[in-house]
Amino acid sequence: MKIDTVLHSDYTVVSIAGEIDMYSSPALRDMLLTLVKKNTATVIVNLKEVRYIDSSGIATFVEALKKMLAYKGKLKMAQVPDRLMEIFNFSKLDKVFEIYGSIEDAANS
Amino acid sequence: MAIGTNPIVITIPSHPRYLSVVRAAAHLAAEICGMGTSGAEDIKHAVDEACSNVIKYAYKCDITRTITIKFEDTLKGFQVTIEDSGCKANIDDIKIRELDEVRPGGLGIHFIKKAFNTVVFDKKKRNGNRLILTRYRNTDEAAISKQK
Prior knowledge:
Strand order of the largest sheet of chain A: 1-2-3-4-5
Radius of gyration of chain A: 12 Å
Number of domains of chain B: 1
CATH topology of chain A: Transcription Regulator spoIIAA
Oligomer: heterodimer
Number of strands of chain B: 5
Number of helices of chain B: 4
CATH class of chain B: Alpha Beta
Helix content of chain A: 40-55%
């Protein structure tokens, strides 16, 4: 798994590529919690290049979302591939996360 | 792999870095056994979650142990057997959350039950655990969900 973070004036884009599983999710957790510690107002997670996510990856996003909501921060998902969307739907996380078709849509919402 | 032929058996170290090997093998074996593209994806996910549970609960994150996974085409359907030599699993100890409840963790079992018609711990195994997962032939996702 590869993670790229780009800081913008109003939001931060976290682009992930590869597979998010029990092996890689701790690195993702560390990165997201670093942004949480800085009280980052809006984080947009670009999932376009993610081929797989397991329950530990989902748990990582849920944990980050809960921590961000505590300071009224926003965690948005963008460009979610179909297979991941199926998993989000099954887990009912489509009702929990704000999901957008593009990073621009997520940034402008 | 045809019905009744020798199963595919792989043994991996109990380190999370090898879960990608299990996923690749599970997906290919399921496709060869005619589980379809969507079925193979669900099976891959379920087997990954089951092996993650072995590392977390049976081995308590000890990465020096092994997990053996057997893929088999049987008369019943596609069968996956996952064996470890760790602590006895108590299904009640494994965190499960309602899908409506939003909190980290507890989703793995849902993914396993989504992919397989039966999820059984073999009580005859004395040391460690033997989890037997079976997806019936010609059952679709909707049929599995209906049974739950």
